[in-house]
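Whiteboard transcription, Tuesday session. T.W. wrote the structure tokens on the left side:
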């Protein structure tokens, strides 16, 4: 609708009518949102385009970002990696969309890299053995689980029909794995992405997601700034051995990871590992009867922390059964909205929450 600007005098009005008669009324670009409860998260909505500008693409179920349809439909792998000083830096971890860091015996942690487009990754590892609780989390992503051996407590889980796994100790799993001369055992077992894919295919594993597969996380359509969150520029989960630190880079909008007192990089790309989102999940951790192997309660409810864009909020988590998806809720009981991009999930002993540092 045309709008004519009326000012104080008729002379000015006449001039402006000639000059500005075709001016359009400026549209508002922001809308006010009213809520009865305090807002815990801020999500900036954007209208859905009438025509998909990403022809031949589909949103990743892991990151919420646009990727090739051929990539989005494929099941990812969940690859077990060592994380001692001898095992780091890892190869191929920079390609992971989601990374889990979970304690194992002796105070060390092990990493599980969930990689979407793994077929193109030439070197992944070093590969390490399975603990049962990693499988519980891997199945949340419909992943093919890749490992190099396992603890005895993991065998019952790995033998379930719903678990598709590739074990490097079984004759190097059809040569998908190999031993490198670059490092000493047990830190020298690696895998080739394309060979993992071919092994899974020959094994008869389902290679694609189910038709109506849903994303593990919920992503903010445009962005989530955690408006009412607290400062989280430096995050330390308190792991005793590797002592990881996530430092927020405001310019890049990502958390950069360090461990063992130096930047944590991918061995192949030499690039420092980074992520958009950090989920810290507090769980109960105990011991089996052998007084050595860890028991981690993956099922049930608990508390945690969600950090993104330099801020954090307290959250609650809920997982109904071993292979069900873990859901994360904010203070209003709504599922959290992640920013599109990579996510690190840190599983922390509930009894050691006092060792967590967020500044």
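and on the right, the sequence the group agreed on:
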């Amino acid at each position: 609708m045309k709008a004519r600007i009326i000012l104080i005098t008729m002379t000015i009005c006449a001039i402006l009518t000639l000059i500005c008669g075709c001016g359009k009324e400026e549209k508002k670009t922001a809308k006010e949102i009213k809520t009865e409860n305090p807002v815990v998260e801020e999500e900036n909505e954007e209208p859905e385009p009438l025509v998909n500008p990403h022809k031949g693409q589909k949103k990743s179920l892991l990151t919420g970002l646009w990727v090739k349809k051929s990539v989005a439909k494929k099941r990812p792998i969940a690859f077990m990696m060592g994380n001692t000083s001898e095992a780091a830096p890892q190869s191929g971890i920079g390609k992971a969309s989601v990374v889990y860091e979970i304690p194992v015996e002796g105070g060390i942690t092990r990493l599980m890299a969930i990689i979407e487009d793994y077929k193109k990754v030439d070197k992944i590892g070093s590969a390490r053995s399975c603990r049962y609780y990693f499988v519980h989390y891997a199945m949340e992503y419909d992943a093919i689980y890749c490992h190099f051996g396992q603890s005895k407590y993991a065998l019952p889980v790995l033998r379930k029909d719903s678990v598709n796994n590739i074990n490097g100790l079984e004759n190097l799993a059809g040569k998908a794995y190999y031993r490198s001369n670059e490092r000493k055992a047990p830190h020298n077992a690696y895998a080739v992405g394309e060979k993992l894919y071919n092994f899974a295919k020959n094994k008869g594993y389902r290679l694609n997601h189910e038709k109506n597969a849903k994303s593990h996380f919920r992503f903010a359509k445009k962005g989530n700034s955690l408006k009412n969150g607290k400062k989280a520029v430096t995050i330390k989960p308190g792991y005793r051995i590797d002592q990881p630190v996530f430092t927020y880079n405001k310019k890049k909008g990502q958390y950069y990871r360090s461990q063992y007192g130096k930047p944590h990089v991918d061995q192949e790309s030499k690039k420092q590992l980074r992520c958009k989102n950090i989920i810290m999940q507090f769980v109960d951790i105990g011991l089996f009867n052998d007084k050595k192997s860890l028991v981690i309660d993956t099922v049930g409810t608990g508390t945690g922390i969600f950090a993104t864009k330099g801020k954090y909020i307290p959250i609650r988590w809920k997982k109904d059964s071993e292979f069900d998806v873990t859901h994360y809720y904010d203070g209003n009981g709504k599922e959290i909205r992640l920013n599109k991009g990579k996510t690190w999930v840190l599983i922390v002993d509930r009894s050691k929450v006092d060792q967590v540092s967020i500044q």
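Someone added at the bottom: Residues 10-20 form the longest helix (11 residues).
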